[in-house]
Amino acid sequence: MEPRPRHRHQRRRDRRRLPRSPLPHRLHHPLFSFLSLLIIVFAPWAGVFLLADMVLRRCAYDSAALHVREGGAYWYRSGWHPAGLTALTAASSFSALTCDSELWTGPLVAPLGGADLTLLGAVVSALAYVLLAGRSGVRPARAA
Questions:
Q1: Strand partners, 105
Q2: Domains of the chain: total
């Protein structure tokens, strides 16, 4: 154990050496709790985006086709890509069901022994996207 300081002034001086946060103490808890819920949406989005952009397209886009509305390579179905939306919805549902946060605990957390599998939403969305895009015949357009 550390010896207790003899004077009150020594204790105050020690407290001043601790780094101070730019946020008030009352704001830390709600802010970090909210940020922990954002992974429910961003992990599946990252899975689809990284797979479609990095793996399938290899970061190459047809810049002229990006601006073509109807009938363009990126138009899909009225501007919506059913395989991508279905993969995002399925993976977001998976992430929400397996999230263990202070604000939300999914119903599958207890049967899984308290495991937080929210980050696996990226893998779920990538796999769902590959299966659905291949099955529907709609694949990301490749640059010419």
A1: 100
A2: 1
Q: Would you say residue 13 lies in a domain?
A: no
Query: Would residue 17 count as lying in a domain?
Result: no
Q: What is the pLDDT along the chain (144 residues), one digit of tens a residue?
A: 566 655 555 555 555 555 666 766 667 778 888 888 999 999 999 999 888 778 877 778 788 888 888 888 878 888 888 989 999 999 999 999 999 988 889 999 999 999 999 999 999 999 999 898 875 544 445 444
Q: Per the domain annotation, does 24 fall within a domain?
A: no
Provide the H-helix boundaries in the chain. 8-16, 25-49, 63-66, 82-97, 121-136
Total-model pTM: 0.71
| Full residue range of the structural domain in which residue 115 is found | 40-136
